[in-house]
Amino acid sequence: MAQILLTDFPIDPTATSGTDLADILNRWHQAAQSGQAGLTRPANLAAGGLWTQQTAGGGMNLMFYDGITDHVVAGVTTPGGSVKVGVDDSIVNAIIFGGA
């Protein structure tokens, strides 16, 4: 799990040490690589942002934040499990992924 912290940005060049900058950049890199994965939406995510919600049993949902509500775009119920698209995905899943 890695998410960009509210305190990371903006970076103040007059107050941020090289070590602090390295920590911020490392957190940013991990967040970018993981799709800002976490149990809850990152606090600083703007409307239109995407993030990865980690769920029970190791599953993941790709989430879209519209500024008010998070919407499931797609998800995997367990690692290596079937991909689900949207909320009612039975038809889309069958057409795109050959699932039921």
Short description:
With 100 residues, the chain is α+β, with helices and mostly antiparallel strands.
Overall pLDDT: 81
Provide the succession of SSEs.
HEEEEH
The total count of strands amounts to 4
Number of helices: 2
- Gyration radius from CA atoms, angstroms: 17 Å
How many angstroms does the end-to-end distance come to?
Answer: 30 Å
What does this 3D model show about the protein?
The chain is an alpha+beta fold. The protein has one domain (6-97). Helices cover 25% and strands 21% of the residues. It is built from 2 helices and 4 strands. Strands 1-2-3-4 form a 4-stranded antiparallel sheet. The chain is elongated, with a radius of gyration of 17 Å. The protein starts with 17 loop residues before the first helix and ends with a helix. The mean pLDDT is 81.
